[in-house]
């Protein structure tokens, strides 16, 4: 046997194993997801109110979407919210995770406390934040007032509603912390020791050991954080219903409305594919940037 | 590390144990399908703190249950009910079903419940999946859409077969939501007008007379300004809440002045026309200049909790159904009267929800037998709801619920004299109309655009939506 | 770790070496700094919990206070009893929730590990396109496949059973596969190569090299799966129709009526239904302790 054919036999065996291992997901995808996804594609060319048979309308939904000012407004709001939530969330929670990774007393307790916001009922969260962000009685504006700053109107103002929601999203990012904490356990201690022998200070150790070793995990949080933020709407629905004056009408909420309030399934499907494209573009950009900073052990 | 492995093991064991007991349960359910009310609220004795079983039994026995010429099924049938209930009413409904089944041994009941917010989503999906319940709850703003899509079965034939079913006991002017082309598709489960509530303590403190039937809207504006005081935690609003695009906007605020949000056919936006425009402009002034009515931020503070309910507003415009809640609180004394008069007289919406019958139902007779009893005067009295559509049930229920009898009489009078469905949006686009107009109005409430610009924009944006109201 | 090492001054080379006393003092200062930061942020993160707690203890009248009160005038512990047993059978709801959650979590665990390993460590021509497909399924808004899925399961006669909520969970969840894959990629290649040279099979490598090292990630997946299924609302509302089959999250929704919401009882029951999640979290976070395994081997 030649070296080439040995390699190709090995490669074939590896490929076979790959397919075998991937099959649980692949079978599930074919059984439970492929059909509904296909249906959603077809629906975007139809008009359907759930009660009558769907009717073919060609590109009408797409034409309507392109000419729908509220759709474009919602894209703008979504991108603003997504950027804010991810940039602030991913960096702030990383610092928190570093802190929570210290071998301090009550570590488990502190971690549990930081995770609490991700567990409490959505309604409690909404009521709480409506209170915290209230222009007159809210905690934040009271604090600002005590140092002589007049706080903004937050959820009651068009300009500050999205920043208010971003603030809230950071506070509820317990899952991101969990993933960071899990990731931090995988960094070999020896790397730090080696860096220390080389005379690296903590700042350099942070940048040359922690960040590169954590980069696949940070990358995961950025990618999934964006997906989640761009799709999110549940809390916004409870808190502002898209107001005031459509200032917090994000695309997810706009889709929800068309799908489950107006039961305009065709248009909701079209909007969903627009969101899909938005998310995929953002993710593709991240994957292309990832080559520059994400460090994998196996390529 | 040892510790960790133990923890993981504990998790795994717990999961396995749970899944094991889950498995057997799963099989049990597969083996014994549709057995209604198995583990819920004790099926042999439904009871709760609010609704003790003894009270229910006693009340049930004291009521006479109506007859119908629709025959009981000869063999066992199952009917499914899709209602929206909360934790409290769910138990009462279970009790109703319990006694109903005693009267009709061949009718088995499968009761479903979904919170109001999720209700339509849930049952529209069930409709698409081809399995609607036999009897369904309906908000007044949903029914026309379901009728237009031929999902519902008309009830007239059943009513005809039930001579005792006293239609005159139900306000005829409030049935428009459920009628189409001369057929009736829904029968109300509750119906109420809107009233003007006031905080007696605040009026006493200000030394002003309580509102009464002689009040005009001008008087309300004037008094609201006088009653406004304080700031921050001490703030008292003159009146709450201000008008906004909503299904009953015309009927409560605009029609007394000869204005309307949409025309009768819901095919034309009329809110920018002078009569309606002037009303909207006055309220906007009351908000922005006089700060006599709560702003967006204040109303946002707690969902469903108006400043009036906490004693921070002197006047309150709301449905008669809030009487129950007001009667339960002891923080302040309250009263109610009719909505004020305008130059064009006095109007009030009559709104309520209904029960409808699915066209797909396989057991329409049994479904009717249930509806007949649930919606009879006895049914209303048994359910003890605060705003019965059957006027003959008002006094009994008010007494049982601690609502002052004079308030009940007031409501009956309004229902008998003028409350109606006229001007209340109900055609299929109604939700979209409101959602389209509301953000524009919010910008006006924030002072971003003038009232005229806002109303003009509403006309421009709402008009195209109205084409969905043209039903073939 | 960062903190411990950071305790030694950054520029050690030029200056004279620190005495152990000085180092100890600096370490102590850093440590108390960390505590202060943690306590401040804990206070912020505890707010929602306190809010729920005080709301759950309020009287019906205090619920309406404007502006809302942080502390009730009197404490009504009976809200807990009333909420849980007063009208709705929350014990049944709890049992239903446990069944769904336990089965789904088990399904997630066994169905995510193999695909994640394959995507992380095995080469195949279709790998790229499949990974893209995997990610793509995460990006399709779930709202739009919800109704087609519902119709599909209706046709199977699965409505009002737990099957549509559980069975798909045994076929991998894209998010968890992606997460686990990221963790598998950080494991040093030498470990795998060493195992291969020893003649270990692919499954053996996965079981005895990869899984022990990815334990924190697996704990994270357990946690997410648990929380996700425990709090699942929209799907449950759609699929579960009979009262005796509904879950805690749905039961909680029933405190919110068309006109009035019983916030105090709702929060009381919400707090009770949160407890299992907190226990699972506490167990899971215990695995987030630096593994000795990693440092012990390979001599890196």
Automatic annotation (TrEMBL), chain A:
Subcellular location(s): the record lists: Cell membrane
Query: Does the keyword field hold Membrane?
Result: yes
Q: Which domain of life is it from?
A: Bacteria
Q: Can you cite an annotated GO cellular component?
A: plasma membrane
How is this protein situated with respect to the membrane?
A: Multi-pass membrane protein
- The protein's predominant localisation is membrane
Which family does this protein fall into? Answer: Belongs to the binding-protein-dependent transport system permease family.
Protein name in the entry: Sugar ABC transporter permease
UniProtKB/TrEMBL annotation, chain B:
Q: Per the record, which residues fall in region Disordered?
A: 28-52
Residues in a coiled coil are none
PROSITE patterns associated with the record = PROKAR_LIPOPROTEIN (PS51257), TAT (PS51318)
Fetch the Pfam families from UniProt.
Answer: SBP_bac_1
Protein name per Swiss-Prot or TrEMBL: Sugar ABC transporter substrate-binding protein
Q: What InterPro entries does the annotation carry? A: Bact_solute-bd_prot1, SBP, TAT_signal
Automatic annotation (TrEMBL), chain C:
Residue span(s) of domain ABC transmembrane type-1 = 94-284
**What's in the keyword line of the UniProt record?**
Cell membrane, Membrane, Transmembrane, Transmembrane helix, Transport
Q: Where does this polypeptide localize?
A: Cell membrane
Ranges where the record places region Disordered: 1-22
- Membrane disposition: Multi-pass membrane protein
Top-level taxon: Bacteria
* Protein name, per record: Carbohydrate ABC transporter permease
- PROSITE patterns named in the record: ABC_TM1
Cross-referenced CDD domains: TM_PBP2
- Entry's InterPro entries? MetI-like, MetI-like_sf
Q: Name one Pfam family in it.
A: BPD_transp_1
């Amino acid at each position: 046997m030649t070296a080439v054919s040995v390699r190709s036999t090995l490669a074939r065996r590896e490929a076979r194993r790959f397919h075998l291992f991937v099959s649980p997901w692949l079978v599930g995808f074919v059984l439970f997801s492929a059909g509904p996804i296909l249906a959603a594609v077809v629906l975007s060319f139809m008009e359907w109110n759930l009660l009558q048979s769907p009717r073919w309308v060609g590109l009408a939904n797409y034409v309507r979407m392109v000419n729908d000012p509220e759709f474009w407004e919602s894209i703008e709001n979504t991108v603003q919210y997504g950027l804010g939530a991810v940039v602030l969330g991913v960096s702030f929670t990383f610092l928190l995770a570093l802190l929570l990774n210290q071998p301090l007393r009550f570590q488990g307790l502190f971690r549990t406390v930081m995770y609490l916001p991700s567990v409490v009922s959505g309604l409690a969260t909404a009521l709480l934040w409506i209170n915290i962000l209230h222009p007159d009685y809210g905690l934040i504006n009271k604090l600002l007032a005590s140092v002589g700053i007049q706080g903004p109107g937050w959820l009651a103002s068009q300009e500050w509603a999205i920043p208010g929601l971003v603030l809230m999203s950071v506070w509820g990012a317990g899952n991101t912390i969990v993933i960071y904490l899990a990731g931090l356990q995988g960094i070999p201690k020896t790397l730090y020791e080696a860096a220390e022998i080389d005379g690296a200070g903590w700042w350099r150790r942070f940048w040359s050991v922690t960040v590169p070793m954590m980069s696949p995990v940070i990358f995961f949080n950025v990618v999934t954080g964006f997906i989640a933020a761009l799709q999110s709407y549940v809390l916004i629905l409870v808190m502002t219903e898209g107001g005031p004056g459509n200032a917090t009408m994000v695309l997810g909420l706009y889709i929800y409305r068309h799908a489950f309030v107006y039961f305009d399934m065709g248009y909701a499907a079209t909007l969903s594919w627009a969101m899909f494209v938005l998310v995929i573009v953002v993710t593709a950009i991240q994957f292309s940037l990832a080559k520059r900073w994400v460090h994998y052990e196996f390529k | 590390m040892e510790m960790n492995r133990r923890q993981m093991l504990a998790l795994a064991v717990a999961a396995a144990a749970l899944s094991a007991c889950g498995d057997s349960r799963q099989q049990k359910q597969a083996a014994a399908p549709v057995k209604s009310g198995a583990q819920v609220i004790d099926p042999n004795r439904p009871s709760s703190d609010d609704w003790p079983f003894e009270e229910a039994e006693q009340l049930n026995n004291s009521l006479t249950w109506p007859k119908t010429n629709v025959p009981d099924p000869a063999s066992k049938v199952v009917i499914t009910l899709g209602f929206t209930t909360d934790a409290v009413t769910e138990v009462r409904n279970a009790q109703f079903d319990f006694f109903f089944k005693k009267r009709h041994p061949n009718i088995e009941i499968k009761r479903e419940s979904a919170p109001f917010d999720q209700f339509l989503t849930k049952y529209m999906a069930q409709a698409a999946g081809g399995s609607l319940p036999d009897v369904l709850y309906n908000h007044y703003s949903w029914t026309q859409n379901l009728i237009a899509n031929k999902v519902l079965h008309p009830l007239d034939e059943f009513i005809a077969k039930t001579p005792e079913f006293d239609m005159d006991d139900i306000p005829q002017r409030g049935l428009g939501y459920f009628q189409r082309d001369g057929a009736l598709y829904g029968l109300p489960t509750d119906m109420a007008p809107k009233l003007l509530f006031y905080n007696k303590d605040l009026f006493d403190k200000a030394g002003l007379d309580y509102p009464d039937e002689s009040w005009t809207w001008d008087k309300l504006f004037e008094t609201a300004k006088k009653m406004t005081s304080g700031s921050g935690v001490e703030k008292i609003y003159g009146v709450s809440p201000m008008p906004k695009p909503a299904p009953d906007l015309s009927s409560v605020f605009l029609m007394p002045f000869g204005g309307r949000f949409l025309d009768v056919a819901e095919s034309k936006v009329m809110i920018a026309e002078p009569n309606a425009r002037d009303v909207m402009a006055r309220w906007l002034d009351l908000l922005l200049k006089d700060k006599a009515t709560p702003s967006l931020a204040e109303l946002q503070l707690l969902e469903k909790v108006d400043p009036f309910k906490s004693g921070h507003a002197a006047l309150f415009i709301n449905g008669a159904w809030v009487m129950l809640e007001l009667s339960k609180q002891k923080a302040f004394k309250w009263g109610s009267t009719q909505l004020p008069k305008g130059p064009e007289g006095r109007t009030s919406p009559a709104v309520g929800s209904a029960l409808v019958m699915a066209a797909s139902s396989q057991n329409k007779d049994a479904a009717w037998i249930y509806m007949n009893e649930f919606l009879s005067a006895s049914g209303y009295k048994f359910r003890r709801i605060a705003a019965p559509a059957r006027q003959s049930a008002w006094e009994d229920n008010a007494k049982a619920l601690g609502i002052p009898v004079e308030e009940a009489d007031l409501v009956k009078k309004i229902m008998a004299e003028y409350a109606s469905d006229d001007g209340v949006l109900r055609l299929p686009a109604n939700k979209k109309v409101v959602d389209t107009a509301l953000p524009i109005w919010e910008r006006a409430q924030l002072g971003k655009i003038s009232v005229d610009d806002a109303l003009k924009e509403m006309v421009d944006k709402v008009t195209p939506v109205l084409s969905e109201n043209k039903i073939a | 770790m960062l903190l411990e090492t950071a305790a030694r001054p950054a520029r050690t080379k030029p200056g004279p070496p620190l005495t152990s006393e000085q180092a100890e003092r600096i370490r102590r200062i850093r440590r108390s700094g960390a505590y202060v930061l943690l306590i401040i942020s804990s206070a912020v993160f505890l707010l929602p919990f306190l809010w729920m707690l005080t709301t759950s203890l309020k009287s019906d009248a205090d619920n309406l206070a404007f502006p809302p009160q942080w502390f009730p005038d009197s404490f009504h512990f009976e809200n807990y009893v009333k909420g849980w047993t007063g009208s709705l059978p929350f014990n049944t709801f709890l049992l239903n929730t446990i069944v769904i959650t336990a089965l789904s979590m088990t399904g997630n665990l066994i169905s995510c590990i193999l695909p994640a390993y394959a995507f992380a460590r095995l080469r195949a021509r279709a790998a790229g396109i499949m990974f893209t497909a995997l990610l793509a399924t995460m990006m399709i808004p779930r709202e739009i496949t919800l109704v087609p899925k519902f119709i599909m399961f209706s046709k199977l006669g699965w409505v009002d059973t737990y099957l549509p909520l559980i069975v798909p969970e045994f076929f991998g969840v894209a998010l968890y596969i992606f997460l686990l894959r990221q963790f598998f990629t950080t494991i040093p290649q030498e470990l795998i190569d060493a195992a291969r040279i020893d003649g270990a099979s692919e499954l053996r490598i996965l079981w005895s090299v990869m899984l022990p090292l990815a334990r924190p990630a697996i704990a994270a997946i357990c946690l997410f799966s648990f929380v996700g299924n425990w709090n699942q609302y929209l799907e449950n509302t759609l699929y579960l129709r009979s009262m005796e089959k509904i879950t805690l999250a749905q039961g909680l929704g029933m405190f919110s009526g068309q006109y009035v919401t019983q916030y105090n009882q709702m929060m009381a029951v919400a707090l009770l239904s949160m407890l299992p999640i907190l226990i699972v979290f506490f167990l899971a976070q215990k695995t987030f302790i630096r593994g000795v395994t990693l440092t012990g081997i390979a001599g890196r």
